[in-house]
Design brief:
This protein has 270 residues and is α/β, with parallel strands linked by helices. The chain has helices at 12-23, 39-49, 57-60, 76-82, 101-107, 139-150, 163-171, 173-190, 195-216, 220-227, 233-243, 246-269, and strands at 5-8, 32-35, 52-54, 66-69, 91-94, 113-117, 127-133, 153-157. 54% of the residues lie in helices and 13% in strands. The structure holds NADPH dihydro-nicotinamide-adenine-dinucleotide phosphate and (2S)-3,4-dihydro-2H-pyrrole-2-carboxylic acid. Keywords: Amino-acid biosynthesis, Cytoplasm, NADP, Oxidoreductase, Proline biosynthesis.
């Protein structure tokens, strides 16, 4: 059976995306090959998902349709070198933070390339992925990328110049939100709740608030106003958050992640 989809780097994000693609029958396991240096991880892929595996990246690059690059940006050059001269011409989809289309097209001359930034909620089909096509990507290539990432959540097409900002917000954002959930739970424990109840309340509060904002399309500030009763509990908490520069801290976190994405891109061009 020929390999339709190859994935280079069988780590966290590869699993987040591929687990969903397999579950939704967009690819069947025998048409997918994951190349991954760790034998333990290769065994995991075979035993859990039934896909083909190899320690040789060139095997994944034999894919007839799509090759997803899911390695760390810092080893891109090593991976590009390992693929020099491969005859096949699959669509190359990069999920690497910071790495520019220009760098990817230098590594894969004349190939259709699409730069993307997914996020970990892809695992449960609630991800959001930004995509930016390279010079040789035709509408049909973009459609393939859209189909892949639509299987794991929402898809937005952005100009490549916005990709580092996307990375700072939605790429890194799940970690920021997870910290918020953890901190809410800690606050509940500090106020006397048992941990299990505090964690459940924290999680459901974040999930419910996000769902309410999405479904009602009200502005977050409007929701805050609805929760804050005059002289009540919520405004007392908001006041404390403002003393701790809550919003400014989150803004700076996204901007720091954006700058780091840019730095990773610059390093990969050297
Ligand atoms: N994690 C996230 O939330 C997101 C990550 N990304 C991007 O996804 C990419 C992967 O990140 P993530 O999944 O978190 O990282 P992981 O470290 O989990 O995955 C990378 C995988 O690549 C393997 N690998 C290392 N060297 C090679 C090689 N030479 N050839 C093939 N595979 C190799 C690693 O094996 P080993 O462990 O043995 O080194 C590892 O399994 C990054 O570029 C990141 O910027 C994008 C969006 C979100
Ligand atoms: O932390 C990182 O570099 C990757 C990119 C976006 C999320 N995780």
């Amino acid at each position: 059976m020929s390999i339709r989809l190859g994935i280079i780097g069988g780590g966290v994000m590869a699993e987040a995306i591929l687990s969903r693609l397999l579950k939704k029958n967009i690819y069947s396991p025998e048409t997918v090959l994951v190349s991954e240096p760790q034998s333990q991880r290769r065994n995991f892929w075979v035993n859990t998902y039934g896909v083909q595996v190899s320690e040789d990246n060139r095997e994944a690059a034999r894919a007839t349709e799509v090759l997803i690059l899911a390695i760390k940006p810092q080893i891109l050059e090593q991976v590009v070198n390992s693929l020099l001269g491969i005859p096949e011409k699959p669509l190359i989809i990069s999920i690497l933070a910071g790495v520019t289309l220009n760098r990817l097209e230098m590594g894969f001359p004349d190939r259709p390339v699409i730069r993307t930034m997914p996020n970990t909620p892809a695992t449960v089909g609630q991800g959001v992925t930004a995509i930016a096509p390279g010079r040789h990507a035709e509408p049909e290539h973009l459609a393939v990328a859209r189909d892949i990432f639509a299987a794991v959540g929402a898809v937005v097409e952005v100009p490549e110049a916005l990709m580092d900002a996307v990375t700072g917000l939605s790429g890194s954002g799940p970690a920021f939100v997870a910290l918020m959930v953890e901190a809410l739970s800690d606050g509940g424990v500090a106020a006397g709740l048992p941990r299990a109840i505090a964690s459940q309340l924290a999680l459901e509060t974040v999930l419910g608030t996000a769902t309410l904002l999405k479904e009602s399309a009200i502005h977050p500030g409007e929701l805050k106003d609805r929760v804050t009763s005059p002289g009540g509990t919520t405004i007392a908490g908001v006041r404390q958050l403002e003393k701790g520069s809550f919003r400014s801290t989150i803004i700076e976190a996204v901007v720091a992640a954006y700058h780091r994405s840019k730095d990773l891109g610059r390093s990969s061009e050297k």
